[in-house]
Design brief:
The complex is a heterodimer of chains A (140) and B (74). Chain A is built from 4 helices and no strands. Chain A is mostly helical and 140 residues long. Chain A has one domain. Chain B has 74 residues and is mainly α. Chain B has a single domain, classed as lambda repressor-like DNA-binding domains (434 Repressor (Amino-terminal Domain)), CATH 1.10.260.40. In chain B, 51% of the residues lie in helices and 5% in strands. In chain B, α2 crosses α3. Chain B is globular and about 35 Å long. Classes of the chains: A mainly alpha (140), B mainly alpha (74). The interface between A and B is medium-sized, with 20 and 22 residues. Chain A: Keywords: Membrane, Transmembrane, Transmembrane helix. Chain A: This is DUF2178 domain-containing protein.
């Protein structure tokens, strides 16, 4: 498996696990109250920060594991990475537009923050899955 | 993603050149072994630069390495 493909798997797993942890913390924190009253800022910041750190650690780990493999990325990896970013970016746009609409209707901050967070997660997951599919099935 | 119509003779050329290993050819043209495998299997069409480098390693013309079928008129 290519170094960059391992990275794509790691990012997809980190994004899903991080969001699952966030949801568990927020849902437990609601404790019967409406979701908008649940404390979410700390959990969101910690899971986003944790995800970034985990991504960096995974990159270092795979880099060390593949240190004797010679070249670790080339033109195909760069093309696949761009393709994945292009696909994943659509969710960032959808999230931005959704957040804008929520702000216009004066929705609670909770929903604005959460729709943005969800769009980042979906962007990371979809982008990573696209990269994995390109590695597995080919990129023309 | 539809498979490429471009076919190649890299595998045959490798064997004709002293059973050259994929890793050695990959190193010679400056790509990863995984990319060379993808090219050989027709899962990735390389850049012209890499295509020329592969042909140069085997001392053959580009069309002896890569082939593209004639388009049939409908």
């Amino acid at each position: 498996m290519a170094f960059e493909e391992k990275q794509a798997w790691a990012l997809a797993v980190i994004a899903v696990v991080g969001y699952a942890v966030y949801l568990l913390i927020v849902l437990n924190g609601a404790d019967g109250r409406p979701l908008t009253e649940a404390p979410y800022v700390g959990a969101m910041l910690w899971t986003i920060g944790g995800g970034i750190v985990a991504g960096i650690v995974a990159g270092i780990w795979f880099g060390i594991a593949a240190r004797n493999d010679g070249l670790q990325s080339d033109e195909r990896d760069r093309e696949i990475s761009r393709f994945g970013d292009h696909v994943g970016q659509s969710f960032v746009v959808i999230g931005g537009v959704s957040a804008m609409v929520l702000a216009m209707v004066e929705a609670p901050y909770f929903w604005i923050a959460n729709v943005l967070y969800l769009s980042f997660v979906l962007s990371a997951v979809l982008g990573s899955l696209t990269r994995i599919a390109a590695y597995r099935r080919g990129l023309q | 993603m539809k498979p490429t119509k471009v076919t190649n003779s890299i595998r045959a050329l490798r064997f004709a050149h002293g059973e050259m290993k994929q890793a050695d050819l990959a190193k010679a043209v400056g790509v990863t072994r995984q990319t060379l495998i993808a090219i050989e299997q027709g899962k990735y069409s390389p850049s012209l630069e890499v295509a020329f480098k592969i042909a140069r390693v085997f001392h053959v013309s580009l069309e002896e390495v890569f082939q593209y079928p004639e388009e049939e008129d409908a």
